[in-house]
Design brief:
Mean pLDDT is 87; it is low at 309-325. Strand 5 (117-128) and strand 6 (133-136) form a beta hairpin. The protein is 32% helix and 25% strand. The chain is an alpha+beta fold. The longest helix has 26 residues, at 267-292. The strands form 2 sheets. Strands 1, 2, 3, 4, 5, 6 and 7 form a 7-stranded antiparallel beta sheet that branches. Strands 9-8-10-11-12 form a 5-stranded antiparallel beta sheet. The two termini are 24 Å apart. It has helices at residues 19-26, 74-92, 98-112, 141-154, 169-179, 214-221, 254-257, 267-292; strands at residues 7-10, 40-45, 55-57, 60-71, 117-128, 133-136, 161-162, 186-196, 203-206, 224-233, 237-242, 247-252.
Length: 325
């Protein structure tokens, strides 16, 4: 149980929710396979494939959202519709009109759906109700939105907001690279992407390449800004920080993983040990990242906006917002 990517959101500290109440609410929308005429199905799964939907280890919770999609390519429907349309045209003596073709495609879709293959996947979210973190293991904010949307539809109250910091990650990363020094507790690794804020969007990417030389500083002086930067925290966790405050390519180093007894025969005990260790490391990493970005922008309770209305980062000190996937 190791997350690979972090999409980070904020819940109020001491959120008024217990694991038991959360379990009850998730149970209202459990996962079911697609019906014969369903293109997609989604619902809550047990993280450990048992009957428990909220897996709790201490004060930390893990939830899992399951998806099932029917694989029915539009090209297959179109091919079948074209073939039938030709047959009907020969019988009738005239071609089908636009409305008739649309109805024919819909009919074929309904016929083929029950025979289409299905594909399943799942997504995990870690909830820290004590410190107010909700973290989705997803490669992008758009993918994480599937999890957030399902939580909104499931929970009676879901006071989620975006994490906002005083400094935008882009401007902070530029300062670190220009000064050749990472913030306290961090080291700069050898992967980086710089992108121009001009219309041409020129970009340069460094992979396993030293970043302390004049070449990188020259790109910064020429107007390129960092959109991704590889960092290591406390010699324990390596990751890539993006300008959207996403954490990607998260890797817990051997000094962390070696703390787990590899001889554990109980799969649940191993799962719990990994989850506890991961959340413990992230409980140190996330505040450190926030501090490195100038601290969190406090939002008064009366001024708190729903996530849909919030911006990803304040415009001040942010010069571009066009991240890679």
């Amino acid at each position: 149980m190791w997350f690979k990517n972090l999409q980070i959101y904020r819940l109020p500290a001491k959120w008024d929710m217990s694991a038991e109440r959360l379990e009850e609410q998730l149970a209202k929308k459990p996962f079911h396979p697609c019906g014969s005429q369903d293109m997609e199905s989604r619902g809550w799964l047990s993280p450990l494939n048992n009957d428990v939907l909220v897996h709790a280890v201490g004060d930390q919770w893990l939830v899992s959202l399951g998806f099932e999609h029917r694989l029915l390519p539009s090209a297959v429907v179109k091919q079948e519709a074209d073939e039938r349309a030709e047959e009907l045209a020969e019988q009738q003596g005239y071609k089908l009109g636009r409305k008739q073709m649309k109805e024919l495609r819909e009919q074929i879709t309904q016929e083929l759906l029950p025979r289409a293959f299905t594909r399943r996947r799942r997504m995990f979210a870690w909830i820290d109700p004590v410190n107010g973190w909700l973290v989705v293991d997803a490669a992008s904010q758009s993918k994480a939105e599937d999890m957030l949307e399902q939580l909104r539809h499931t929970l009676d109250s879901f006071p989620l907001t975006l994490l906002r910091t005083e400094l935008s990650p882009m401007s902070a990363m530029a300062d670190w690279l220009a000064g050749g020094e990472a913030p306290a507790g961090f080291t700069i690794d050898q992967d980086c992407e710089l992108r121009s804020v001009s219309e041409d969007k020129a970009a340069v990417r460094y992979v396993r390449h030293p970043l302390e030389g004049d070449e990188v500083k020259g790109h910064l002086e020429a107007g390129k800004l960092p959109t991704r930067l590889a960092l290591t925290f406390d010699d324990r966790v390596s990751f890539v920080l993006t300008e959207k405050l996403e954490i990607k390519r998260l890797d817990f180093l051997d000094v962390v993983r070696d703390q787990i007894d590899g001889e554990k025969e109980d799969a649940e005990a191993l799962f719990n040990a990994e989850f506890a260790l991961m959340t413990g490391e992230l409980a140190h990493l996330l505040p450190a990242v926030v501090q490195a970005l100038g601290g969190e922008i406090a939002v008064a309770a009366g001024d708190q906006k729903p996530l849909e209305a919030a911006s990803s980062q304040p415009e001040a000190k942010a010069l571009a917002d066009d991240p890679p996937f």
